[in-house]
Specification:
The protein has 8 helices and 17 strands. It has 267 residues and is an alpha/beta fold. The protein has 2 domains: 2-155, 3-Layer(aba) Sandwich (Rossmann fold); 177-266, OB fold (Dihydrolipoamide Acetyltransferase, E2P). It has a 5-stranded parallel sheet, with helices on both faces. A 5-stranded antiparallel sheet has the order 12-11-10-14-13. A 3-stranded antiparallel sheet has the order 15-16-17, with no helix packed on it. It is elongated and about 65 Å long.
């Protein structure tokens, strides 16, 4: 497996290379090909390295001296590799990466976070290999959509009409936030119910999506339920439950009732 680290800080490249070696030595699934790790220090050198080494995984810095990681990806006609961003962005910008379902690792690079991101990338690579690989244009289209969504989210973090990328085991769905009616916690999974009567199951907890969606008029009314306030059709105060626009009934926890009423009265 060939990995390319693109970062303009030598210290970050050194640390990332060391951690990758540790990760693959002691834990990740056996690879069919030897591990190769290459480095580049910017957009131009990164493009040259991609053409030379044809990496399966690129660890890509966001801000570099000769441009951004987004600039690099836009200049590739057929990006057919997995991408994990290495970023120093602040807490609010991190939501943009989460909305786009693009893996990222914050600087300074943490081994556990890097391991989880690399594990997901390796799983994707192995799944594509089992499926005899996706066509390049499919990979390009998916990555391009994620990058576009990431850029939009970075620029406008609180728009009501923004999109979110929801990733299950097989696909990445690009969904308008306004189309999400409610989210249901099911152990370590979250089920999204959409206004076209479809649903998507994602392997992230409801708490993670509560933090992500609360600024966009979502409210957690119950331990297991996060709802889009725009999709409330009826609030039955006596029964402490909501009827949503899809006809579903959602219970409201007693401790959440007063806060919900305050929010609804302010809308």
């Amino acid at each position: 497996m060939t990995i390319l680290i693109i970062d303009d800080e030598q210290s970050v490249r050194n640390t990332t290379r060391f951690l990758l070696t540790e990760i693959f030595t002691i834990g990740l699934p056996t690879l069919e090909t030897p591990l190769e790790i290459h480095e580049a220090d910017g957009v131009e050198s990164g493009l040259a390295a991609i053409r030379q080494h044809n990496p399966a995984l690129v660890l890509l810095d966001v801000e570099m001296q000769d441009g951004t990681g987004f600039d690099l990806l836009r200049r590739l006609a057929e990006p057919n590799f997995q991408v994990v961003f290495i970023t120093a962005h602040n807490h609010y910008a991190i939501h943009a990466f989460e909305f786009s379902a693009i893996d990222f690792v914050l600087k300074p690079v943490d081994e556990d976070l890097l391991r989880r991101a690399v594990e997901r990338a390796v799983a994707n690579i192995q799944r594509e290999a089992r499926l005899q690989a996706l066509p390049h244009d499919t990979l390009q289209t998916t990555l391009a959509k994620q990058i576009t969504l990431l850029n939009e989210s970075l620029q406008q973090l609180h728009r009501a009409d923004k999109k979110i990328a929801l990733r299950d085991q097989e696909n990445i769905y690009f969904v308008d936030v306004s189309d999400i009616i409610r989210c249901l916690a099911e152990g370590p999974y979250t089920t999204f119910f959409l206004n076209d009567n479809s649903s998507i199951i994602v392997s992230k907890t409801l708490k993670e999506y509560e933090e992500l969606l609360t600024p966009h008029l979502f409210f957690r009314v119950h331990h297991s339920h996060l709802i889009n306030l725009r999709h409330i059709k009826l609030f039955r105060k006596s029964d402490s439950d909501l009827q949503m626009t899809d006809g579903s009934n959602v219970p409201v926890a007693t401790r959440k009732k007063e806060d919900l009423l305050k929010i609804l009265n302010s809308l």
